[in-house]
């Protein structure tokens, strides 16, 4: 898979996507279409299969927001850290739920201790 960089600029009601590696330019009405439009443009102009083309977008300033690409990267990193913390919390909650269940604490009470529903507590106790 070949990864191309696309640079997105808002012009009126259109999103313009420049692809410097091929000196290409395409446009999309909606931002959700920008990546696909860029991929199609690259595939057609380079005569390569669409499935071999990937595009990473960066953004030109929009209004007063001039660091969009950096902010997107920061948000993505925060979401990844959040997912890791959630995974860790689930592991710890499962361990505690099982320990409490082994001490004959009722599942409803385990749920109350963990701050989850009794159904979720049951899932934690029986998780494989």
Descriptive report:
The protein has 128 residues and is of the alpha+beta class. It has helices at 34-46, 68-102, 107-114, 118-126; strands spanning 2-11, 14-19, 24-28, 53-59. Strands 3-2-1-4 form a 4-stranded mixed β-sheet, with helices on one face. It is elongated, with a radius of gyration of 24 Å.
In N-to-C order, the SSE pattern is: EEEHEHHH
Work out the strand percent. 15-25%
> What is the general shape?
elongated
Structural class given helices, strands, pairing? alpha+beta
Quickly describe the structure:
By secondary structure, the chain is of the alpha+beta class.
Write the layout of secondary structure elements.
Blueprint: E1 2-11, E2 14-19, E3 24-28, H1 34-46, E4 53-59, H2 68-102, H3 107-114, H4 118-126
Helix pairs in contact: 2-3, 2-4, 3-4
Keywords:
single chain; 128 residues; alpha+beta; 4-stranded mixed beta sheet
């Amino acid at each position: 898979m070949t990864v191309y960089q696309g640079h997105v600029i808002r012009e009126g009601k259109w999103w313009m996507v420049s692809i410097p590696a091929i000196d290409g330019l395409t446009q999309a009405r909606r931002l959700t279409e920008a990546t696909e439009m860029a991929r199609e443009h690259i595939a057609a102009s380079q005569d390569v299969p669409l499935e071999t083309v990937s595009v990473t977008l960066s953004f030109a300033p929009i209004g007063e927001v001039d660091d969009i690409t950096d902010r997107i990267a920061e948000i993505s990193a925060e979401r990844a850290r959040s997912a890791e913390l959630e995974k860790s919390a689930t592991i710890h909650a499962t361990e505690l739920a099982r320990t409490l269940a082994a001490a004959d604490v009722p599942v409803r009470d385990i749920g109350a201790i963990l701050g989850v529903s009794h159904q979720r507590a049951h899932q934690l106790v029986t998780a494989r």
